[in-house]
Design a protein that fits this description.
The chain is an alpha/beta fold and about 325 residues long. About 40% of the residues lie in helices and about 15% in strands. The longest helix is centred in the middle third of the chain and has 21 residues. It is globular, with a radius of gyration of 19 Å.
């Protein structure tokens, strides 16, 4: 499919990627009331699903990014938008992200699509939606793309496709990008909660034998991966994790209409995260690169009513996806 040309044109302050990245979480005031459904997993844990419904036959499954939740501003904004245009939503809170610690030592990681598969199958079995569309942001976008690629032709006909936003599809190079000084502020924010969670897990599971000194000194994701992600989830090394968790190798196997939107000024992403060739060679995978937008930002101006470009872009593709799959 041809790569989409973007019409996203923000005003001057929002043409700075960092400004656009931080503006939404710091200044947007969206609120929402969810109906929470806690489901029990096959491994005796739980996952919290937060629904916001308007009696639609279409359900949008929202998957947040690293250390996000259903309370993340970009999730709330999109849930409200989809409700306003007549679509139901459910936010899939990744394990340990719903405001209550999950029951197991293991939580989530960038490639843990078995949880996505479990949630989608649960929705298919317990609800009667005609259409399900998955929308993932950042880490949640990686899960979305990887899941759709893994499912390939086996994807349920009810799942019409997906949209992914600001996705580090090539984790190894993206982590190297995040290690740079320009991202020091974001890394400190991520590590503030991530280190606390790992420390809490070590207290609940003393047999884990966490090296607390190394945890305190950790400054890069690969440090936490060596301490927690690799031993807990069975990866041989951070490189093994990066290779197996990245969604980029799965893009050619996607067999349902899927759109990836990445901003050129997203400081989290490496050049390997802009899959032009994969999109050109695929009949189902579309890619759109905006010149501006930052990471999960895509704010246009200081006027709240102007700041729904991303929501409208996603819903427009979503309607096209449903038409493609049902007619």
């Amino acid at each position: 499919m041809p790569v989409f040309e973007s019409n996203f044109k923000p005003t001057v302050p929002f043409r700075n990627g960092h400004f656009n990245t931080v503006y939404r979480p710091l200044f947007m005031k969206d609120t929402i009331v969810y109906n929470r459904k806690r489901i029990t997993t096959w491994d005796k844990d739980f996952i919290d699903l937060d629904f916001s419904t308007v009696n639609s036959n279409t359900l949008v499954v929202l998957i947040h990014g690293l250390e996000g939740s259903s309370q993340s501003k970009y999730i709330i904004s999109h849930a409200n938008h989809f409700n306003n245009i007549g679509l139901d939503t459910v936010c899939f809170n990744l394990r340990g992200c719903s405001g209550e610690d999950n029951l197991l030592l293991s939580t989530y990681h960038s490639g843990k699509t078995e949880d996505v598969e479990f949630v989608i199958n649960y929705l298919l079995e317990h609800y009667n939606y005609q259409n399900i569309v998955i929308v993932g942001f950042s880490l949640g976008g990686n899960l979305t793309l990887k899941y759709l690629g893994e499912q390939g032709n086996n994807l349920s006909s009810t799942v019409k496709g997906g949209i992914a936003v600001s996705v580090p599809i090539h984790i190894e190079s993206a982590e190297k990008e995040l290690d740079k000084l320009k991202n020091k502020f974001y890394m400190e924010m991520f590590f503030k909660t991530m280190k606390s969670k790992v420390l809490e897990k070590s207290m609940k599971f003393p047999e884990f034998n966490l090296d607390k000194k190394k945890l305190y000194k950790a400054t890069k994701f690969k440090h936490l991966e060596k301490l927690y992600t690799c031993p807990v989830f069975g990866f041989d090394s951070p490189l093994d994790y990066w290779t197996k968790a990245s969604s980029k190798p799965h893009l050619p196997q996607i067999k349902a209409p899927t759109l990836l939107i990445n901003a050129k000024d997203d400081s989290f992403l490496s050049r390997e995260c802009y899959p032009y060739e994969e999109a050109k060679k695929s009949d189902y995978f579309f890619f759109e690169e905006t010149k501006f937008g930052g990471h999960c930002g895509f704010m246009t101006s200081f006027k709240p009513e102007d700041n729904t470009w991303l929501e409208h872009r996603i819903s427009r593709f979503m309607k096209q996806v449903i038409e493609i799959k049902t007619h």
